[in-house]
Every structure is written in structure tokens, then in C-alpha cells.
Amino acid sequence: MLLHPRALLLWCAMAAITLMPACCQPLELFGGYTARNVKLGGSLNQSNVSGWHTAFAGYFTERLGIAVDLAGFDAAAYPAVVAADGSTLSPALLFRNYSLLAGPQVRLFRRGRFETSLRALFGVARARVPSELLTAAPVDLTSPASLLGLNFDVNVSRRVAVRFLPGLYTTHYDGSYQTTYRFSVGPVFRFGGPKDTR
Question: How does pLDDT run along the chain (198 residues), one tens digit per residue?
């Protein structure tokens, strides 16, 4: 019996997180706030949504590593049609969106207090949307997803940094591609590796 693609990716992500301490040095753990631009389509306005973001990364060599990325958004979708007084004709409707991505992370630059790396991640996204928001679409939508982005780290100490993550996030819902920006910020903690790599 074949596993559903979502279940298979989840098992792969869990395996990667479990095996990272044994085969990757150093390790990175990131957690913080994330925001992105979203367009559901139909009669809904494009809007910015925010949520949580966590990521794990382990380096096999000085520059090449693997990252596992999880993010979640809770947001309100507002109808594009408004009344003459500027109010919406119907109340905002809530939706949720989650993503699970994994892929290579390559360190590009490291000097003093600054460090950058490139990430190319692939996986799945799931949107839980009320059926009345999208024409002929189910309540739960699953889509292939990808994220191409950069990590900009400002090192506070040898083990702690503040990370800024701009990137392009792509999904494929309802027969069409959606490419939007995604931006995250938060602390990153490093474990293992040489005592001083700077």
C-alpha cells in the first residue's frame, strides 16, 4: 500500500530531523514570525497574512546542508466587493494554511558578524478554506509548494543570531500557480561544530 504524498513527506521530514544530529554538524534551529502575500482568487482581495515559522538545518560540509521548514498561517479573507459606504457586503471568512518543505541549504558568505545562505525547498502546502470561498473547490486543498530564499544572519554570539529570511513562495491551487513573497524574522540557535568558526 502506497503512502499518501503528504504522509510520505512528513515521514521524510521526521527522519531528516531525527538523523541530523548523527550526520550533520553544525545544527541550526530557527523559530519566529513570518508574513506573506496571499491571493485566494474569486471574489477575494489580495492581502498580507502572518503566522509562525520554524526550521531545522544541518551542514554536511562547510557550505552544504539540508533544511526542513514548517510554517503556518491563520488569516481572514475579505470580499473584493464593497458597499458604497466602503464596508464589505459580507463578513470576513477565516482560512488556515500550512506548509512542510525540505531541501538543500548552501552557505554563501560568512564574515565576522554576518552570514548568508541560499535555500531551495520543496514540499507540500495545505489550505483549509470554506467551500463558499472558491468555486467548485473542496474545503481542504493540498498543493505542491516551493520556496527559494536567502538567510541573512546577524550574529549576536557564537551560538545565537538574528535571522532575516526573504523569499519567493510558490503553490499550485485550483489549476494555477501562485507566486508570492514570504518574509520571516527571528532567532537562530546553533549547536555542535567547531568551537570557533570565525
Answer: 444 545 555 555 555 555 555 455 688 999 999 988 776 554 444 567 788 999 989 888 888 999 999 998 876 655 544 555 655 445 455 677 889 999 999 999 888 899 999 999 999 888 776 555 444 444 577 889 999 999 999 999 989 999 999 999 998 877 778 888 899 999 999 887 655 444
Q: Yes or no: say if 13 and 100 are a contact pair by the CB < 8 Å rule.
A: yes
**Helix, coil or strand: residue 7:** helix
Number of helical (H) and strand (E) elements in the chain, helices listed first: 1, 8
34: amino acid identity, one letter: T
Give the integer Cα–Cα distance in Å for 74 and 191.
31
Helix (H/G/I), strand (E/B), else coil: 16: helix
End-to-end CA gap in the chain: 50
Q: Which cell is 142 given? A: 493540498
Pairing of strands 64-77, 93-111: antiparallel
Residue 20 sits at φ, ψ, to 5 deg, of -55, -45
CB atoms within 10 A of CB 102: 20
This prediction's pTM? 0.73
Cβ neighbors of 15 (< 8 A, separation 6 or more) are none
